[in-house]
Design goal:
single chain, 77 residues, mainly alpha, globular
Length: 77
């Protein structure tokens, strides 16, 4: 994992907020949104030639972190 500078961290924050805005404005249910997000993520992973196990490890770690933190619905976004 690379170390991000302050500008990159800010850009990530803006990108995340834009994604959350899209999710809220789309009015799609969770199943549909998960499908769209996984489709996009897997497309990026395949295009960037990431190994399947590496991608799944990132997904698992992210899921475990969210599960551990147990955010409320308004904290998730």
């Amino acid at each position: 994992m690379k170390t991000l500078n302050e500008h990159e961290v800010q850009r990530l924050g803006v990108g995340y907020q834009q994604l959350v805005t899209f999710m809220h404005q789309s009015e799609l249910d969770a199943e549909s949104l998960i499908g769209i997000l996984f489709k996009a993520a897997m497309g990026l992973a395949v295009t960037a030639n990431y190994d399947r196990d590496e991608v799944l490890a990132v997904v698992a770690a992210t899921y475990d972190m969210e599960r551990f933190m147990r955010p409320t619905s308004d904290e998730v976004h």
